[in-house]
Amino acid sequence: MELIRNYFPNLTTDQDNKLSALKVLYTEWNNKINVVSRKDMDQFYCNHVLHSLSIAKIHSFKVNENVLDIGTGGGFPGIPLAIIFPQTKFHLVDSIQKKITVVSEVANSLELKNVSITNDRFEHIKKKHDTIISRAVAPANKLVRLTKNSTSKNSKHIFLKGGDLVDEKKELLQKYKTLKWKESRLSDFFSEKFFETKKVIKLNY
Q1: How far apart are CA 75 and CA 185, in angstroms?
Q2: Edge to edge, what strands does the sheet with 89-94 contain?
Q3: Alpha-carbon Rg of the chain, whole angstroms?
Q4: Using CA atoms in the order 13, 14, 16, 17, what is the torsion angle rounded to 10 degrees?
Q5: Residues 18-46, mean pLDDT to the nearest whole number
């Protein structure tokens, strides 16, 4: 948690308490249902919590903004962001029931009133959202195509990925010419080695 406090020094007591509780909750649930790589648990706050919160470095979620977390897995990036932005509405979706079970239990334990959870494929979600977030779910072109039901002309899509995205960007913008791509390196925000090749992409529709 010192890592989180270092990069987010203005946490409220409630935010700090809830983020501090995450490691215990995920350790307990991971022993029953493996949703986080066991080797990653030693670096839980860096590789999962801080990585999720990196989105907050390039986008400040508004009050009542509707956010869809597609392929949320164990609840990342949605759960940490829901703690940091308690007045934003987060809808977490994953097609794998066991992962949704863990996400539901974590959200309930933390009493996250701003989180709703659905066990389904994200392309089936038809409600329009202001912003879509994801973490290494699929290539950008596929993400945009499969979320057309849940986006509008004013939507944003923010996703976390690593590596060289030149070809991915070119393919996307050739097909969707009105999209605007903004790419930020996470190493500009965080000094840990984990973030050296990690990026956050913000697409404006």
Answers
A1: 23
A2: 115-119, 89-94, 66-70, 131-135, 156-162, 198-204, 180-185
A3: 16
A4: 110
A5: 90
